Amino acid sequence: MRIFGQHGPRWMLSLFGIQRDLIEALSQGASPSDALKPLMDALRHLDDDLICSTLQLRDQRLWSLETSQLPARYSAAIEGIAIGDGVGSCGTAAYRGETVISPDIAHDPAWATVTDVAAEAGLAACWSVPIRGHGGQILGTFALYHRRPRTPQGDELALMEAVARITGAVLDSGLVANTLAAERRALVEDRALLSALLDNNPDLVFFKDLEGRYGAANATFLTWVGRDAGEVLGRTDHDLFPREQAEFFRAHDRRALESPQPHQNEEWLDWPDGARLVEMKKTAVRTPDGAPLGVLGVGRDVTHHYRDAERLRVLADTDALTQLPNRRALWRRARALFDTRAPTHPVSVAMIDIDRFKVLNDTAGHEAGDRALAGFAACLKAEQGPDDIIGRIGGEEFAWLSPGAPVDALAARVARARERAWGEHGLRFSAGLTAGTEGDFEDTLRRADRALYAAKTSGRDQSVID
């Protein structure tokens, strides 16, 4: 927004403060002229070339308020002028009930009777807006004069209309206080109604800004996270949830912001009474001009749609994209293996990470990334041993468990999968391998992660055995 060469938003915001001051002045018995003086003074500072005029309509004639900044001789010449079509800018605006722009007074026929007086006063252009009262009746005109010919630019007319509305409220001051009080009551009632609708909604409802901070959350959402509003609002997913879950939520937020349509996905969420399958719909919230403000999320519990217990178990344990066991299922089965393996029957473990996957996602897009992940999972499964377990543990990271097989045998399977991944999908990956026995689960994972780190830091596209 630009107003008279200045950056307008700050000044337009100051109108709210000026309006509050006007109302307070009127409540203390100030006259319309006294109440309007701060507003006219503020306008004068926008542009040295600017002159404000407020005329009040009485008996079909226009009369100056004491706030007028017009030169005295010119003001006297138009005092009490009868309104009519073609009677200057203000007389015409009051008569027609519409904005009238005279960009060049000297050549405007509507100004013929006062052209010389206007020129003597140094007035070259006049824009006039009718002032309306509470019921829509014309109460007068608000005009801006300029010392050189010009037409309105940017939001200047919007500013004039805003000032005219405020001035109309002042001139119609008997209704101002009641109108504002009614608006405040309506706002409070609307807010209470909206809160009641949201808090009695069984769905999860929330809003997050572009930085992922929660700006709103209903009672169902607060019950799910087990926190009150003060502990949720202003915080991010990383403040409220484990890292992997938080990153999952934020990834779907980003997809919603990138999509012109609502983004939908299913999520398993842990509730106090057990896991529930939630159908989540996330929609980008935008300003009228399309700028993103954040994400509105609505999550509906759809667990009851899946009455078959086995189907529920499979859905809960399976990564939807790759159809591999997810992290929760994989670690559960891995712990069971390590709890039962004797020292003579180790479990070989490979931790696998696709190299430079983020570059693929950023350059080719999420859909291409999803296809690559599904294809990569198929390459791993193609080399899977009969007792092996392969799972996706997050993002582009996978784990491969081979009970009873020496680590060299697992390394050979990984090598064949490497050839497939490159030949079929152009994907390279790093892997860290090790073996563990009974009661050695956590330490085995640490060693496999350490080997994976060594593979990635020493050039990628290789396997390292710890």
Into which percentage range does the β-strand content fall? Answer: 15-25%
Provide the CATH superfamily of the largest domain: GAF domain
Structural class: alpha+beta
Biggest sheet features: 6 strands, antiparallel
Mean pLDDT, to the nearest integer, reads: 85
What does this structure look like?
With 466 residues, this protein is an alpha+beta fold. The chain has three domains: 2-178, GAF domain (Beta-Lactamase, 2-Layer Sandwich); 201-310, 2-Layer Sandwich (Beta-Lactamase), CATH 3.30.450.20; 318-465, Reverse transcriptase/Diguanylate cyclase domain (Alpha-Beta Plaits, 2-Layer Sandwich). 46% of the residues lie in helices and 24% in strands. The protein has 17 helices and 18 strands. It has helices at 8-27, 32-44, 72-78, 88-96, 115-120, 156-171, 173-199, 219-225, 229-232, 237-240, 243-258, 309-317, 327-340, 357-364, 366-382, 407-425, 441-457, and strands at 2-3, 6-7, 50-58, 61-64, 81-82, 100-102, 125-132, 138-146, 204-209, 214-217, 263-271, 274-286, 292-301, 347-354, 389-394, 397-403, 429-436, 463-465. The strands form four sheets. It has a six-stranded antiparallel sheet, with helices on both faces. The chain has a five-stranded antiparallel sheet with strand order 10-9-13-12-11. Strands 15-16-14-17-18 form a five-stranded mixed sheet, with helices on both faces. The protein is elongated, with a radius of gyration of 36 Å. The two termini are 63 Å apart. 31% of the residues are buried.
